[in-house]
Amino acid sequence: MALVVHKYGGSSVGTIERIRAVAQRCAAVRAAGDDLAVVVSAMKGETDRLLGLAAALSALPDRREQDVLVATGEQVSVALLAIALRELGCAARSFLGHQVRILTDSSFNNARIRDIDDAELRGALARGQVAVVAGFQGIDAAGNITTLGRGGSDTTAVAVAAALGAARCDIFTDVDGVYTADPNVCAAARKLDHVSYEEMLELASLGAKVLQIRSVAIASKYRLPVHTRSSFNDRPGTWLVESYPMMEDVVVLAVAHDLNQAQIQLADVPDRPGIAAMVFGALAADDINVDMIIQGVGADARNDVSFTVRKEDLERARRIVERVAGELGAAAPVLRPDVCKVSVVGQGMRHHAGVAARMFSTLAAQGINILSISTSEIKVSCVIDARYAELAVRTLHDAFIGA
Amino acid sequence: MALVVHKYGGSSVGTIERIRAVAQRCAAVRAAGDDLAVVVSAMKGETDRLLGLAAALSALPDRREQDVLVATGEQVSVALLAIALRELGCAARSFLGHQVRILTDSSFNNARIRDIDDAELRGALARGQVAVVAGFQGIDAAGNITTLGRGGSDTTAVAVAAALGAARCDIFTDVDGVYTADPNVCAAARKLDHVSYEEMLELASLGAKVLQIRSVAIASKYRLPVHTRSSFNDRPGTWLVESYPMMEDVVVLAVAHDLNQAQIQLADVPDRPGIAAMVFGALAADDINVDMIIQGVGADARNDVSFTVRKEDLERARRIVERVAGELGAAAPVLRPDVCKVSVVGQGMRHHAGVAARMFSTLAAQGINILSISTSEIKVSCVIDARYAELAVRTLHDAFIGA
Question: Among A8, A256, A359, B32, which one is least packed by beta carbons within 10 Å?
Answer without folding.
Answer: B32
